[in-house]
Structure formats: structure tokens, C-alpha cells
């Protein structure tokens, strides 16, 4: 499977990157970065260090959007990820082993897609600014995209606001373009499901004891675990982005349902909310008439034990079974 990651590392991004980079059945074509959990300079440096940790110097990386498409991002997510995005421990990772591509994120995305001999899966696990820009600037490449597997959104209340999840809230206009535009097949992995996939201290011990790479990833988690001690009410960790990556790497590990999805781009308390129309299609047609609705595959369930074991096995070096 050919795959490109768009990311804003972030502790959960670190797990997601490792999951893809260490999977023998994934052809990781490239990594692009975006503002989000911390500023672009930090997310880019973190992504470079993580690829070096995974010994993937073959993977090109490019820096992307420094800010949302239209309106400034009100604040970062340092409260969860620490000042450098990795619990203040980015310096424990290897130094970057490869320079950035000079074309920038959208340029690299376009180049990789154009050169691909089969459709590519895009996995944006941060704000969707780079992906929206790609779709706007390179409509000729849509057929080269197999699907876009997105970590973002929440159907029953957010984490950054009462209504909105962080990635979508960070650039609602970009998210609306990607999710409601109907240009490429999308899978949305919302916070409702990723919270249910949270891992416990035993899982984290297994990671720490799996070897040097697992120990290095475990070492990035203290601030993140402390945040989720309050968010969950028990000592654990939510691997949001790794859940989406699991679906990208093993299609079907998450169960999805097709819904029209829009994003609230207003300026009230609902800004950044993902609005999934869960009415029966027959009712939508009766009420809304023949207006065609763009549907997104929304992840709603999974075998929780299987999902957790899959992520740990791949990161711990199990590879393909």
C-alpha cells in the first residue's frame, strides 16, 4: 500500500508515524507537516526526528502550512503535548537525518501523487490545510488519491470546545472543503471512537519493554499521560492519530457508516463542529428533496482489543503477520 502522512507531531502523531514507518506492507512515500499542536517549525523538526528514530532516511519530508487558510488559529495544544509537542522530550530523539524537500508540502504531495503507479492513501492527522490546498491547486491529481483517512471531528461533543475537536477546529474552512467537497473518498475517524480505544498502563509498559524504539516512544508520553489522567479519569492514553493510521494500514479494522458531513465555519460556539447527518437516507430524501449529499465514511466502532494489539505489535516491531 502506498501512503503519505500529513502531520503535526504531537505525541499521538509520533505513534501514528511509527506505525506506518515500521509496517512492512506500507510503502511510505513521504511525510508532510502542518501547524497544529505546536508551531510548524516544531512539528517539522519533530517529524524529522521521528523518521530518524524509525531509521527511515529514505522518506522525503516537506514543511507545509504555517497557519489556517483564512482565520488565525486561536491557540495551540501545548496543554496536552508540552511546549515542544513531545512532552518537552523531543531532544531525546535522534537528530534529523534528512534535509527538507525545497518544494514545500503541497509541492511534494503533488510530485509523489503524479509519480505514483497506483492510487495513494493520504493520512492527514492534523489540521487539513495542506490537503485542502492540494485539492484546490491540483484537481488533476484527484484520481491518484485512493482515499483520505482523517483523524478529526467529534459527533457528540469536542475536546477543544464543547462542540469541536482540535484538528477540525484549527482550520474549519479547510476541513469543510475536504469533507464536504466530494472531490476524494474520505474516511473520518472521530474522537468519539478514538477515546474508546484508549490504552492503559499495562499497554504502555509493554511498549516500554519492547525494545529501544518502544522505550523512546514511551519516553515522549509523560505530559500526554498526565493530561489524559484528567480527561479520562484514569491513568491511560488516547492514541487518536494511531487509530486512524491503523485503518489506513489495515482497511476495515474500523467499522464505518456513510453519512453526509459538514463543518460549522461560523463564529459562534459551534465553530469547528463536525455535523454528521445520521438520519436515514429515505428521510433525508423526503425532507431535503433530491439534493445530492456527499457522504463520508465515518468510523463508529472496532474490536478494541484487536485494535490495541495491532498498534502495539506494529510499533513493537512485529511487522506483518
What sort of overall outline do the alpha carbons produce when their principal axes are compared?
globular
Poorly predicted regions are: none
| Element string (H = helix, E = strand) | EHEHEHHEHEHHEHEHHHEHEEHEH
Helix-and-strand structural type:
alpha/beta
Polypeptide structure, described:
39% of the residues lie in helices and 18% in strands. By secondary structure, it is α/β, with parallel strands linked by helices. The protein has one domain: Ribonucleoside hydrolase-like (Inosine-uridine Nucleoside N-ribohydrolase, Chain A, Alpha-Beta Complex). It has a nine-stranded mixed beta sheet with strand order 3-2-1-4-5-6-11-9-10, sandwiched between helices. It has a two-stranded antiparallel sheet with strand order 7-8. Helix 1 runs parallel beside helix 12. The radius of gyration is 18 Å and the shape is globular. GO terms for molecular function: purine nucleosidase activity. Keywords: Glycosidase, Hydrolase. This is Pyrimidine-specific ribonucleoside hydrolase. One of its GO terms (cellular component) is cytosol.
Structure keywords:
about 325 residues, about 40% helix, two-stranded antiparallel ribbon, alpha/beta, nine-stranded mixed beta sheet, Inosine-uridine Nucleoside N-ribohydrolase, Chain A
What is the secondary structure topology, with strand pairs?
Blueprint: E1 2-7, H1 11-21, E2 27-33, H2 40-53, E3 61-63, H3 78-81, H4 104-115, E4 120-124, H5 129-137, E5 145-151, H6 166-170, H7 172-180, E6 186-189, H8 191-196, E7 199-200, H9 201-208, H10 212-218, H11 222-232, E8 236-237, H12 240-249, E9 254-263, E10 274-276, H13 281-288, E11 295-302, H14 304-315
Parallel strand pairs: 1-2, 1-4, 2-3, 4-5, 5-6, 6-11
Antiparallel strand pairs: 7-8, 9-10, 9-11
Helix pairs in contact: 1-2, 1-12, 4-5, 5-7, 9-10
Pfam family, one: IU_nuc_hydro
Protein name: Pyrimidine-specific ribonucleoside hydrolase
Domain Inosine/uridine-preferring nucleoside hydrolase: 3-305
